[in-house]
Specification:
By secondary structure, the protein is α/β, with parallel strands linked by helices. It has 12 helices and 18 strands. Helix content is 31%, strand content 21%. Helix 1 packs across helix 11, helix 2 runs antiparallel to helix 3 and helix 8 crosses helix 12. The site of NADP nicotinamide-adenine-dinucleotide phosphate has 19 residues, from helix 1.
Amino acid sequence: MQKPASSIIVIFGASGDLTRRKLIPALFDLYRQNFLPENCAVLGVSRSTISDEQFRKRMRDELEKDSGAERKNITVFLKNLFYQSIDTAVVAEYAKLKKRLLEIDRSCHCGGNMLFYLSTPPNLYPVIPAMLEAHGLNRSAENGGWRRLIVEKPFGYDLASAMELNKTLLKYFSEEQIYRIDHYLGKETVQNILALRFSNGIFEPLWNRNYIHHVEITGAEALGVEQRGGYYNRSGAVRDMVQNHLLQIAATIAMEPPAVFGADAVRNEKVKVFQALRSIRTEDVSKQVVRGQYTASTIRGEKVAAYREEKDVPPDSRTETFVALRFYIDNWRWGGVPFFIRSGKRLPTRVTEAVIHFNRTPHSLFADTHSVNEGDNQLIIRIQPDEGILLKFGMKRPGAGFNIEQVGMDFHYSDLGPIDIPEAYERLLLDCLNGDGTLYARADGVEACWKFIDPILNAWRENPDIPLYGYPAGTWGPQEANRLFDNPGEDWRYPCKNLTGDGEYCEL
Ligand SMILES: NC(=O)c1ccc[n+]([C@@H]2O[C@H](COP(=O)([O-])OP(=O)(O)OC[C@H]3O[C@@H](n4cnc5c(N)ncnc54)[C@H](OP(=O)(O)O)[C@@H]3O)[C@@H](O)[C@H]2O)c1
C-alpha cells in the first residue's frame, strides 16, 4: 500500500458522532499501521468552543475503548490533532480557519495538501464548499498542494436535490476533487466481489442471463432506529439503504469487466448498470415493491416497541422501515434476470449478503425415484458479519440409491487466521489521501440511482392506497415480500429463522 503525500485532514463536524466513532479511530488505525503520511495533521472544526486539549481528551477516551490500542501510540497520534471553533455557516469565520490552516501547514510541514471532510448536517454540504472558495481554499496552493473534498451521505433527498447538490459542489470543486463516500464500498467483502469476479476464470462464463436465474441482495439490521428516530423518519429504508449501499452492491455484481482497474474505468462500468436499471412505472410499484413498518412484539421474552412508539417518530408515521423490490437491468448480460433487494430494521439478525441463484438443471433426473433435496446452485457472498463466500450444490448421499442433498463449499475470512479486516472508513480515507476515487460514488452514478428510486418514492407519496404492511419486530418483514417471486416455491434466503414474537402482521 502506497504512503500518501504529507497533508492536513480537516474534519467539519468534529464534535459529532461520526468523527468520534468512525473517523478518528480509522485515522488512528492508519497511523498504527504506518499508512498515514510522513507529516500529517488533523484539524477538527465545529461550532462548540473547545480547546485542542479538550478535543484530544475526547478522542483519547474513544480510542482507549479499543483494548488493543497502546497508550503510547495514542499519545503520539494525538499530538498532531488540533481543533478550531467556527460557525461554518458564516463566511467571515473562514479567515480564522485559513490562518490556522496555514500555521499548521507550516509547523507540521504538510506541503499545502488539504483534505476537507464534510461530516456535518447535510444542509451544510453546499454551504461549506462555497465558503472555502471565498477564501481560496478550494484551489491548489501556490506550491501545487492539492485540495480534496469528502462528502458524507446523504447525497440529496431525491433526484432534484441530488442534482442541485452536485451542481453546487461542482461550482467550487472539480469532479476529480470530490469524493462521495459510501462506506459499503470500503468494506473488504464488497471489494472482494471485484476480486471474485475479475481474478477467476470460472465465474465469468456463467455470469449472465444464460446461467443465472436471479440475484438476491439483503441488507438486514436487527436494531431499530435507536436514538435516530427523527433522522430515520425523514429518510426510511429506501433512502437509507437501497438508493446508495444496496444498489452499489448490485452494480458491483452486475457491471462489465473494466479494461483497467482505475477510478474512471470501474465507475464508468457501474454507471452503465445504473443507467440500465428499468424504471418501475407508477402502476407497477405495488406489484414490484413491498413496504413495511415494524410493529410491537416480544423477542426472547422482551417487549420491543413498535416503530411508531420510538422516540421522535410521529404516532401516525408512514415511513417504511422495510422494503423489498424486484427490478431488472436492461442490457445484454442481464436481460430478463430479476434482481431482488430486501432491507429492513428490526429483522431477526444483522446480515448483508448477496445470493447468486443459478439455473436449475433442465431435467430433474433423480426426482421421480429418489429422495431429492435439489434446490438451485447458489453462490452466497456474505458481506457482514462472518464475512465469506459459500457455494451450494447437490451431492449424492453415500449409500444405496441416488439421494441428493445440498452441501456447501465455503470460505470464511476468519480461515485466513487472525487478520484484522480493516474498517471501511480506514480504506476509504487512505484511498482519498492517495487520490484514488475508485471506491467512491461519482455524480452521474448518484443521479442515475435517484432516477430509478424517485418513481417509487413518488408513487408512495401520491398514492396512499399503496399498502404499508406492519410486521412484528424480529421477523423477516411482511409476508407480502414473498409474492415478488414469479414462481411457486421461490422465496428469499433466510440466514436464520424468525425470532419468536407475538406481534401482529397487519396493514397499517
Ligand atoms: N453517525 C453516523 O454513523 C453516520 C453514518 C453515515 C453518514 N453520516 C452523516 O454524517 C454527517 C454527520 O453525522 P453525525 O452523526 O456525526 O452528526 P452529529 O453527531 O449530529 O454531528 C454533527 C456535527 O456538525 C456540527 N454542526 C452542526 N451545525 C453546524 C454549524 N452550523 N456549523 C458548524 N458545525 C455544525 C456539530 O457540531 P457543533 O454543534 O459543535 O457545531 C457536530 O460536530 C451527517 O450528515 C450524517 O447524515 C453519519
